[in-house]
Amino acid sequence: MATITAADVNKLRTITGAGMMDCKKALVEADGDFDLAIENLRKKGQKVAANRSDRESTEGAAIAVVNADKTSGVVITLNCETDFVGKNEGFVKLATDLANQALNYDTKEAFLASDFNGITVADKLIEQTGVIGEKIEIASFERLSGAFVGSYIHAGNKIAVLTALSANVEGADEAARNVAMQAAAMNPIALDEAGVDASIIEKEIEIAKDQLRQEGKPEAMLDNIAKGKIQRFYKDNTLVNQDYIKDGSMSVASYIKSVDGGLTVTGFRRVALG
Q1: Hey, which of 123, 172, 232, 255 would disulfide with 119, CB 3.0 to 4.6 Å?
Q2: For residues 149 and 143, what is the distance between their CA atoms, to the nearest angstrom?
């Protein structure tokens, strides 16, 4: 029987993030073999993950990161079950580390299969399920590329946003962040009119017409009035047409043009917990 020292337990705890007693038990069961102890902890994680597979994981951390030249970014959510875990410094660091790794992959599947300190990201999530005792998963994975990409993470890591601009001009960094803050606060459904699904517009037109009929408006007037309501819908729900939250006298599109006359917003990605 190998002698298990406090230093051994601390070493395993540093490697895996597991609790002290769990690490000691794993080392005892593995007779001091670190590799076997780590494998035992992973097996525990797999068991916990299976037991918690039907649990809801709506808390966690939303993280947005961009590459060094600010032409590409990724935004993810690392989800867990409780707000207590989601606010933990170690959990947020893990989410940030995973987001930085996700920058190198185009799909969630490739990211989950990639190597993360000797194991796949997918296996790391299973391991952490065992360590933390809650269901841990990557719920959102979104990429965005452009001439200039900026990011914003809302306080508490509940919402994270990427925005892309048409050019890397002076003031682009602040402008991209401001537009990302807009998207975080106002939750637009699309960038502009072209991005709104036709089925949504059809539904909004029918709702508007029904409301107008109830108000007693003549049938012949419904189409024109409904079109006006749709323009209001675009203004409220598409990013570039929304009133700019820092200056309600202009739209987001107008704000961007105030930074540079030829500048436009070319895309955004917004993810949120819950």
Answers
A1: 123
A2: 11
Which helix H or strand E contains 104, and what residues bound it? none
Instruction: Give the neighbor-by-neighbor strand order of the sheet with 159-165.
Output: 148-153, 159-165, 265-272
Spans of the chain below 50 pLDDT? none
Write down the pLDDT at residue 72: 98
Instruction: Catalogue the E-assigned strands of 15-110.
Output: 59-66, 72-80
pLDDT at residue 15, as a whole number: 75
φ, ψ (nearest 5 deg) of residue 196: -85, 130
- Start-to-end CA distance of the chain, whole Å, equals 48
Helices (H), the chain: 6-16, 20-29, 34-51, 83-86, 89-102, 108-113, 121-132, 172-186, 198-214, 222-237, 252-259
Give 49-105 pLDDT, tens digit per residue: 777 777 888 999 999 999 999 999 999 999 999 999 999 999 999 999 999 999 999
Tell me the C-alpha distance between 232 and 226, whole Å: 10
pTM over 0.90: no
Question: Using CA atoms, how far apart are residues 40 and 147, in angstroms rounded to an integer?
Answer: 47
pLDDT digits (tens, 9 = 90+) for 168-178: 999 999 999 99
Provide the CB-side half-sphere exposure for 227 (13 A, CA). Answer: 4
Return the half-sphere exposure (C-beta side, CA atoms, 13 A cut-off) of residue 218. Answer: 3
Torsion of CA 201, 203, 208, 212, to 10 degrees: 140
For 176-201, letters b (16+ CB in 10 Å) and e give bebbbbbbbebebebbbeeebeeeee
